[in-house]
Amino acid sequence: MSLAPRLDLRQSQSLVMTPQLQQAIKLLALSNLEIETFIAEEVERNPLLDAQGGDDGGPSEQADSGEDFEPRDGPADASELILGGGEASGEAALDVDLAVEAFHHDSASDSIGGLDGGLGINGVGGGGSEDGPDLDSLGTSDLSLADHLLAQAGSSVSGPDLFIAQHLIDQIDECGYLTASLREIAERLGVPLARVEAVLGVIQTFDPTGVGARDLAECLALQAKEADRYDPCMARLIDNLELVARGDLARLRRICNVDDEDLADMIRELRNYDPKPGCRYGGDPVPAVTPDIFVARRGNGWAVEINAATLPRLLVNRAYYAEVSGGKQDKASKAWLTDMLASANWLVKALDQRQRTIIKVASEIVKQQEGFFLKGVAHLRPLTLRQVADAIEMHESTVSRVTSNKYLSCARGLFELKYFFTSAIQSADGGEAVSAEAVKSAIKTLIAAEDPKKILSDDTLVEMLNAKGFDIARRTVAKYREAMGIGSSVQRRRQKALEGAG
């Protein structure tokens, strides 16, 4: 074995992802609104790109019942007319697993992190006209709670008291509660505690009623005083909110010294108060969820198409390119112009391929979950990413990216694509497995229809679900019930008692 230094020449192969291919894969995980932002940035950077308003020219899918959801052959769209080919083209280029060791990574930036995100289904956004009302602006007030309180303080107090009021308002959280100790504030400002309490009393008269309270009981008491309902009985009821939460009506009747009718009236009054008065002001508006895909019944089949209203149509301005390239230019300018043309061509093709991939995945989901679209959540089938990936001959990671941050709009509402992928619950009679979402729907239906005088326990729910053909354990019922925000039988019994009293 020689220990002398020497120079060897070795030949090896490695699979390297180009930056363009990495970007194309990232595009799969972006929603239509995120793509719109991305396109705007690219149009600003590349003078050869022109973005037109969204239209219905995107790829769509039509299939009949019983037939495969395969891409239909149709006339070439703008991207196909512009492009004559290019490297890493086609679905196969985007259908890769970035986690495998086959790829060579020159640096940490070569690895693409997941772009998965969650969005709650809050509403449906549409492509309305530009002259229509801005519904998003109606969600919350532009005026913050602090500004609203400071405006009232300026007309109610002055001098040193105004300074104390401003300091107190700074310590009020977004729900309207004072979060700091009055003693600490008095020591910090160097003023008597009684004076701080007096200024706080003034703030507690401001709109909204209940603001400046130090706890829930004080907040409700302020609202009861404003409504002229703060008598000794109501005061004792508010002082025993923990009994109200537990539904201990018998003990509340004894403490408040009232009969059933008076207690019911007091509880009804208490329910009309706002436990978080400050939430009416400020805060970020809840963004509307805009669907990325539309699904509609067409004859015996389904039409699946991209929401083109949120996607600007991207074109390469070849006339401008011909005009600029025809003039005199140095070597650097020519190279830059060539790069801009290649980048524009690639982006148009990548966006077109992204749409086709999304349509292909969404069409397979509609095919697999046709029972849901026809009959509802009770007919939702168990489905995994691998099943869809195998059916359309793509990698599982590609399907995962396509279904991230995407929403599907159909006659039954707006759903995230991830919603259609659920685990399986075995059938009690040995038949076909059912979706976990179908079981959750059955649990919710049974609880909604339960007799207030005969609340269903988890064991009873298990028996009723087994009778319906669901082979499910008690702990699974409890897990699903808690995931849907439904209380236990004891909690529901107390809630029903309170509702009956109210």
Structural class: alpha+beta
The total beta strand count reads: 11
**Main beta sheet strand tally, sense and closure:** 5 strands, mixed
Beta-strand residue percentage: 5-15%
Q: Compute the number of helices.
A: 22
Query: Helical percent range?
Result: 40-55%
**Which geometry do the CA atoms define?**
extended
Instruction: Give the distance, in angstroms, between the N- and C-terminal Cα atoms.
Output: 92 Å
Give the oligomer, counting copies of the same chain as homo and different chains as hetero: single chain
Give the spatial strand order of the biggest sheet: 3-6-5-8-9
Rg estimate, integer Å: 32 Å
Q: Give the mean pLDDT.
A: 78
The stretches of 5 or more residues where confidence is low (pLDDT under 50) are: 56-89, 98-141
Would you mind describing this structure in some detail?
β10 (424-425) and β11 form a beta hairpin. Mean pLDDT is 78; it is low at 56-89 and 98-141. It contains 22 helices and 11 strands. It is extended and about 90 Å long. It has helices at residues 19-28, 32-45, 78-82, 91-94, 145-156, 160-170, 182-189, 193-203, 216-226, 232-239, 241-246, 249-256, 260-271, 318-325, 331-368, 370-375, 385-392, 396-402, 436-448, 458-467, 474-483, 489-501; strands at residues 15-16, 49-52, 60-64, 103-104, 293-298, 301-306, 313-316, 407-410, 413-416, 424-425, 434-435. α5 runs antiparallel to α6, α6 (160-170) crosses α8 (193-203) and α17 crosses α18 (396-402). The strands form 4 sheets. A 5-stranded mixed beta sheet has the order 3-6-5-8-9, with helices on one face. The protein is 46% helix and 8% strand. By secondary structure, the protein is an alpha+beta fold.
